[in-house]
Amino acid sequence: MSKTHTAIACTSVGHFDAIQVPTESPGDHEVLLKIECAAMIPFDTYVNDYGYITPSFPMIFGFSAAGTIAEVGKGVDDLKVGDRVTAYTYGESRLKATQEYSVQPRHVCAKIPDSLSFEAAATIPDNFVTAFNALFNTINFALPVPSSFPATTEPPLAHSPILVYGGGSTSGQYSIQLLHASGYKNTIVTASPKHHDYLRSLGATHTLDYRSPDFVKDVTAIVTASPGGNNDGKVDLVLDCITAESTLNAIGKVVSPLGTLAILLPVKEGDKVRGTEKMYMELPEQMKGLIPQGTKVLGVRTFFYAQDEFLRDNLMPKILPQLLETGIIQPNKVRLMDESFGSFKDRVGAGLDLLRNNQISGEKVVVKVRS
């Protein structure tokens, strides 16, 4: 194996390039991943265009990858060379996805079934971990984790309305599937109408057009007719998978002042998934008035999910492989950047352009790393 390999990285604000980086050997409780496919998300454009939360350059892109185990470090006894895995590739540049090899901690890797392509597998980790963290982490919604999937007993809030705003997003799709598999039977989901049938197939109970002038009236009608709903028509649990000024404005009209709102960070000004130079890692003062006084607002910080010992030891190593093997979790639809887009660098550039220009809806940008 060569001592260096190719990576595509942001080299300074507004610029990215192909660079050579060291091919490391895994340390204790680590593996070396030979990457076949890397997924990209809007956050990658924030890094490239604004240097957002980027302490130094170069910074390799991509928060999810899929490939095979090339080497295992000491203490890893449940993965072996050649195993097919997908990984949540977050953190410092050396751990990221748009490169030919990457060392990863064992706990961010999940084995995948032979029937699942690397392209599809690469869509899963970052948004799946985000959804699970938002729903089940004790510092977020703290819903009970089922002893098995699908759940064999109803959870306490099985029939209570839960609103997933932005259900067509990649995080929204995993949230819907996890709620369905955990026994929740009254999920209200907003999305573009073109996604409604698909989201219902994933487990959404009600699908609403977020642009409809009747949005508030429709939510109120669903809640008041629900066995576990509030008489005032307000929703107790809301997950915002977009977290922009416009989504908070809409949610503020339907969330209960006694309820809980979980927001996927960062908070963006305006109405676009694509961020601007002004983004926030907590609800800014100028937007607090959009949410009823008394509503508990939780900022979901997925990069810190492994501080929860249960999630660190179980989510990727055990829970995700089971969900994939049984077909309970379906990957996102793929927008593939393959050889037809040119070189490895060109493929990453094409993905950044799609994300930058808001041309992705209900899909995940996946870059083929190897020709």
TrEMBL record:
SUPFAM superfamilies: GroES-like, NAD(P)-binding Rossmann-fold domains. This is GroES-like protein. The lineage of its organism: Eukaryota, Fungi, Dikarya, Basidiomycota, Agaricomycotina. It holds the Pfam family ADH_N. Gene3D superfamilies: Medium-chain alcohol dehydrogenases, catalytic domain, NAD(P)-binding Rossmann-like Domain. GO terms for molecular function: oxidoreductase activity, acting on NAD(P)H. Residues 14-367 form the Enoyl reductase (ER) domain. InterPro entries: ADH-like_C (IPR013149), ADH-like_N (IPR013154), ER (IPR020843), GroES-like_sf (IPR011032), NAD(P)-bd_dom_sf (IPR036291), Trans-enoyl_RdTase-like (IPR047122). CDD domains: enoyl_reductase_like. It comes from the Eukaryota.
